[in-house]
ABC1 atypical kinase-like domain-containing protein (Lentinula guzmanii), 279 residues
Amino acid sequence: MTRSFLILPLIASLCITFPAFTHAAPTASQNVTNFQLEARNVPGIYSKADILKEHDRSWILGVYGEDLDYKRNIFTKTLPIHTRISNSDIPPRLDDNGGVLERYSRTKIAYVLDDQDQTIGVAKGYLKNEELDKWEAHAEVKALQATAKSSHEFDYGKKYGWPVAYDFRPVIVMNYVEGVDIVDSEQYQNAPRKEQKEMEKRYMKLLQNEVYYYVKKKGILHADFHSGNVRVTFNGGKIKKVKLIDWGYPGVFTVKKSVSEKDFKTWFVERFAFCNRQK
């Protein structure tokens, strides 16, 4: 069942009708062609134009991490043996036909637990050991290093037995981010439609500010901001703040910090409608 989440445009001059939210909405990784980055002789890595298509802009410079030397392996240390990973995997996102999106078929995600089985983080492990997977793991670590407020927010290394039994694989462990997907929140689901509309307007504004912050301060664009990649916290029935999660390929790009706020806002509104469209 699709939950309606109709968003009012923040820019009055843009006559856009925002469609309903759905968890199954594929974003950056949908319908890519076989065009690969010339800068990387790695099968499966796509250019920014191929990923973003009509949402590509001249101020978006390229896929984040496309120039890094991933062969200087940073996944050499073994993660602490006390890093306990749940036996229950977090279900991957699906495409419009109910199939697993290609990027999620190459990784496994599960919660990290403490000694009392309380969730303290999320682990992302790479199922394959091909060049694409090595590069992607390094690119995500680079993005986390650039965007995290503290190095204590994440860790990375190799782990034996997960996600592949009897073998080592690169694993990234990220602290648990407080909040919920707004679509799943009790505050949104139980609110009258009038209050939902106010909530939607505030959600979009805060998310716009969050994405723009990383553009201006870090030169990084998170372009895969469907509701599943945003954690919302509430103060009573009002949204307090939003936080982006999942800084991995193919949703992260290098951008010009000098992009104007006007150009960014125009792009954001269009991209938001795409990321959160109805099936």
The longest strand covers residues 119-126. The helical segments are 48-52, 131-147, 186-189, 193-218, 261-275. The mean pLDDT is 82.
